[in-house]
From TrEMBL:
PANTHER family: LIPID-A-DISACCHARIDE SYNTHASE, LIPID-A-DISACCHARIDE SYNTHASE, MITOCHONDRIAL-RELATED. It comes from Thioploca ingrica. GO terms for cellular component: membrane. GO terms for biological process: lipid A biosynthetic process. It comes from the Bacteria. The gene is lpxB. SUPFAM superfamilies: UDP-Glycosyltransferase/glycogen phosphorylase. Belongs to the LpxB family. This is Lipid-A-disaccharide synthase. Pathway: Bacterial outer membrane biogenesis; LPS lipid A biosynthesis.
Length: 387
């Protein structure tokens, strides 16, 4: 059995690695090839190109690397058409994968797309391309599956691997000991983002918010996990500029431990909000975009919330602030709400636990079952036609 697979960035590599391991549990000799990263390769994947080939973010960067991306996709398309796999899986990276899936599906190769594009929020016209491109959409969240069902596109909600991996209960004191943190009246973890443009937009207002909070809790301490040494260097520049005397501990990685250790989390919107929710941390969510991007988004995006906890609950569980709303006073006041209302925190954690149970379906195994079912259906159909 051969499967083609393309992941677009590290988050997709994590999903791909778990999926390959689940597939191998049923078919130890399965061959999986395409584009992937360290997690997929460790699971026995053969990558034709390095993962970094597709890890391009932003309009300018995509245009700059367009010829390289096109050449890569053309070569993969040719390879898979000449050596047809039993099935192809595109993991996220819709701008790259949907076109490749459409070409392969047109040639009779079954296709699956894993991780829904945000068509429920904007670019609804993509639904037509998705219908032409994949035989099945695998979604991480239930509201996404509901959306595809409303538009008669085959879909299966498989849950989220992080919900399977993260325990239902966490212990802040243990996390503080693991990180060798000194005693403090309150610990606040700041997560300004995992990409450079996010730290540029949110680093300074987050530091200003920390200074604002210190006027209420002088013994408060701050914890900031950065995704890479380069982001740590950027954040240190901002720290020297805005708050050189702030009582702060900087980390490389260890974001989960830093969140668990916190009394409250101030985070950029994105996967970190899902992680904070699964770790049962009260949070405040913020995001800022470049002015032109925000102007366009106002006209294109039609959803009541932008943070994952609120989207999953379909109600505002946590405060979220966008663009000009991202001020020290707004963020600080929202953080104080959690710090000064333990009953509200307990209620929030109850909501978070219910959502985690809903997402805790054994995502890797569910996705593998869906993939193998399509392969078996295709084989049966071919046998019936040949008979």
């Amino acid at each position: 059995m051969r499967i083609g697979m393309v992941a677009g960035e590290l988050s997709g590599d994590l999903l791909g690695g778990g999926l390959i391991q689940a597939l191998r549990a049923n078919h130890p000799n399965i061959m999986v090839e395409g584009i992937g990263g360290p997690q997929m390769i460790a699971a026995g994947f053969h990558s034709h190109y390095p993962l970094e080939t597709l890890s391009v973010m932003g309009l300018v960067e995509v245009i700059k690397h367009f010829s390289q991306l096109k050449q890569c996709r053309d070569q993969l398309r040719t390879y898979f058409l000449q050596h047809p796999p039993d099935l192809f899986i595109g993991i996220d990276a819709p701008d790259f994968n949907l076109g490749l899936e459409q070409a392969l599906k047109s040639a009779g190769i079954p296709t699956v797309h894993y991780v829904s594009p945000s068509v429920w929020a904007w670019r609804h016209y993509r639904l037509r391309k998705i219908a032409r491109s994949c035989d099945l959409m695998l979604t991480l969240f239930p509201f996404e599956a509901d959306y595809y069902q409303q538009h008669a596109i085959p879909v299966r909600f498989v849950g989220h691997p992080l919900a399977d991996q993260i325990p239902l209960q966490t212990d802040p004191q243990t996390a503080r000991q693991q990180l060798n943190l000194p005693p403090a009246e309150k610990w606040v973890t700041l997560l300004p983002g995992s990409r450079r443009h996010e730290v540029l937009q949110l680093g300074i207002p987050f530091l200003q918010t920390a200074q604002w909070l210190l006027t209420h809790y002088p013994q408060m301490r701050f914890l900031v996990p950065l995704a890479s040494p380069s982001l740590k260097a950027l954040f240190c520049q901002q720290l020297a500029q805005v708050a050189p005397n702030l009582p702060i501990t900087l980390l490389i990685g260890q974001s989960h431990e830093a969140m668990v250790a916190a009394d409250v989390v101030l985070t950029a919107s994105g996967t970190a909000t899902l992680e904070a929710m699964l770790l049962k941390r009260p949070m405040v969510v913020a995001y800022r975009l470049a002015a032109v991007t925000y102007w366009l988004a106002r006209w294109l995006v039609h959803i009541p919330y932008f943070s994952l906890p609120n989207l999953l609950a379909q109600e505002q569980l946590v405060a979220e602030f966008l663009q000009d709303q991202v001020t020290p006073e707004n963020l600080g006041t929202a953080l104080l709400h959690w710090l000064e209302n333990p009953q509200a925190v307990e209620t929030l954690q109850t909501h978070f636990t219910k959502i985690q149970v809903q997402l805790r379906l054994g995502a890797n195994q569910q996705a593998a079952q869906a993939v193998l079912a399509i392969i078996n259906q295709t084989r049966i159909a071919k046998m019936a036609n040949s008979g």
